[in-house]
Structure formats: C-alpha cells, structure tokens
TrEMBL record:
It comes from Roseateles asaccharophilus. Its cofactor is [2Fe-2S] cluster. Keywords: 2Fe-2S, Electron transport, Iron, Iron-sulfur, Metal-binding, Transport. This is Ferredoxin. Residues 15-105 form the 2Fe-2S ferredoxin-type domain. InterPro entries: 2Fe-2S_ferredoxin-like_sf, 2Fe-2S_ferredoxin-type, Beta-grasp_dom_sf. GO terms for molecular function: 2 iron, 2 sulfur cluster binding; metal ion binding. Residues 102-136 are annotated as: Disordered. Belongs to the 2Fe2S plant-type ferredoxin family. Residues 124-136 have a biased composition (Basic and acidic residues). It comes from the Bacteria.
Length: 136
C-alpha cells in the first residue's frame, strides 16, 4: 500500500520518491537532498553528519538516478555499484526514485521540521491565583 505524504505540495519539476518497504510516496525538489525531502515530508531517515562522511544515512537506491553535491561521498566503489547511496548529499536527477530504507520512521509532530506541520494547539485559558495577605 502506498501512502502519499503531502501530495499537494508537489510541482511539475519535483521527482517522486518512494520510501520502501513502507510504501511512503513523497515529492523531492531538484535542489533538495533526498534526506531533506524525507524530513520535510515527515519521514525520519537515520542521519548524523549531513555531509556524506558518517554513512549513518546509507540506503539502497533501487530505482531512479541521483547526483551528489560532493565529488566522491563516503562510499566505496563496490557499494556504489551495488546501489548504495548517501541520501544526505544525494539529489534526484531522474525519477521516479525508490529508496530501500527499512529503518525509516514517521516523525512525531513535535520532531518535524518547522513549517511541515500545523503548530500545536495553544491553551489560551486564563489562570488566576490570588495570594492571601499574611497580615490578615
């Protein structure tokens, strides 16, 4: 089953990204890394450095093509040949894309990046306390 995450925000230039095996579908802008697209849609991929060195976000791309913002991210040639990518520095260049990320999780509302979810309801009720004068 596929679940569209924020389908109304996609534009004609966006790429379609599926997070598998969960089946989550989301839009990825050409100027946005796969990691940032996932986070903006409310999907947490493991990550740490966001610059292609720690390998915490390493996932397998099974469909589509990406380009990197750095010349050679922290992957071995064999890993690249097997489809492993680093979503923190990977940009979509041919889609649709499918990313195998079984460790991906839906973000709780309080963890989502600013602007992705509605703000929590604020309790605007007025509370009043009256202090008694100790001299009475």
């Amino acid at each position: 089953m596929h679940k569209d995450l924020d389908p109304g925000s996609a534009t004609a230039d966006d790429f379609r990204l599926e997070i598998a095996p969960q089946g989550w579908q989301l839009a990825c802008r050409p100027d946005q890394t796969l990691l940032l697209a996932a986070l903006a849609a409310g999907v947490r991929l493991p990550h740490s450095c966001r610059n292609g060195t720690c390998r915490a976000c390493m996932s397998r791309l099974t469909q589509g093509r990406i380009r990197y913002r750095i010349e050679w991210p922290g992957l071995l040639a064999e890993e690249k040949a097997q489809g492993w990518i680093l979503p923190c520095v990977a940009y979509a260049c041919e889609g649709p894309l499918q990313l195998q990320a079984p460790q991906a999780q839906a973000l709780a509302p309080r963890e989502a990046p600013p602007g992705t979810l509605s703000p929590p309801a604020v309790d605007k009720s007025v509370h009043s306390t009256r202090m008694e004068d100790a001299s009475d």
